[in-house]
Design the sequence.
């Protein structure tokens, strides 16, 4: 028996799939607990909710934070280092300047003028559980929070059976599906291919997602930290596979910003399994997708 839950959270579609190894009542409670956990983390890490812990930190510039927010910020900064700054949690002000200042479904059909581009690379200091932000620095944990949450929820559900968790396409799996890998749809250009995800996580980043208009110009959410403006990469979309969904999310963004030639070479050099879709629709893969 396979149990599914679908709902909206963290500004996106959530899918929970559980093949339980416990009785139905226990499985239902596990799925309920998983949903509560997603809501709890959203309440911590949302940049759109002024009452969230992250928003309060951004407003104050310095705060002693909860263990979970500390873990998220520490992970995001580590991925900034690992990706050479192409994934950067300090793009918050650049996001705001580009017009992404509220949940995507609340953005106007065409907003006002685009604000001045604001390069990232902001200073963040962590000492004894206290996070201090440099002048003009605010944090946006949106993407990596989804991947990290998918990993946490997969751990929770995995204690009750084989499972798949997808939060806006950031996917974490535990166990197996019908004795084999989990079937997951990956876009190759305009066509979908079903591949097998046997373990860990998968994530996709693309300039064709989360788009809006600003002063007549098409905008998207993939900010280039070096320029502080929406990226002009020649890649349309990147999917990566990693040991966990949070890492996959960061590398999907980093490879997207690297462009086709840079992304292919880097992915091969680091042994990253990826699908690189160019703006022209052509597709390159690295590693092994089963």
Sequence:
């Amino acid at each position: 028996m396979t149990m599914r839950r679908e709902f909206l959270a963290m500004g996106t579609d959530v899918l929970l799939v559980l093949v339980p190894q416990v009785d139905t009542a226990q499985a239902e409670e596990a799925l309920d607990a998983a949903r509560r956990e997603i809501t709890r983390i959203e309440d911590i890490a949302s940049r759109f909710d002024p009452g969230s812990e992250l928003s309060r930190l951004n407003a104050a510039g310095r705060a002693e934070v909860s263990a979970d927010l500390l873990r998220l910020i520490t992970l995001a900064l580590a991925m900034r280092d690992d990706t050479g700054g192409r994934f950067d949690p300090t793009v918050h002000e650049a996001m705001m300047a580009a017009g992404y200042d509220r949940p995507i479904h609340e953005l106007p059909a065409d907003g006002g003028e685009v604000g001045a581009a604001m390069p990232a690379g902001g200073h963040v200091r962590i000492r004894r559980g206290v996070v201090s932000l440099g002048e003009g620095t605010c944090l946006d944990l949106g993407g990596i929070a989804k991947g990290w949450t998918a990993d946490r929820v997969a751990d929770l559900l995995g204690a009750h059976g084989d499972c798949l968790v997808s939060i806006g396409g950031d996917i974490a799996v535990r166990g197996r599906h019908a004795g084999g890998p989990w079937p997951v749809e990956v876009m190759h250009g305009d066509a979908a291919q079903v591949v097998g995800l046997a373990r860990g996580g998968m994530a996709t980043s693309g300039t064709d997602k989360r788009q809006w208009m600003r002063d007549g110009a098409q905008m998207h959410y993939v900010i280039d930290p070096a320029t502080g403006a929406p990226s002009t990469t020649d890649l349309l979309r990147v999917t990566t596979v990693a040991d966990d969904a949070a890492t996959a999310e960061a590398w999907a963004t980093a490879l997207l910003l690297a462009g086709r030639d840079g992304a292919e070479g880097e992915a091969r050099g680091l042994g990253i399994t990826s699908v690189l879709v160019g703006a022209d629709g052509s597709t390159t893969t690295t590693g092994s997708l089963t």
In short: The longest strand covers residues 12-20. The chain has a mean pLDDT of 93.
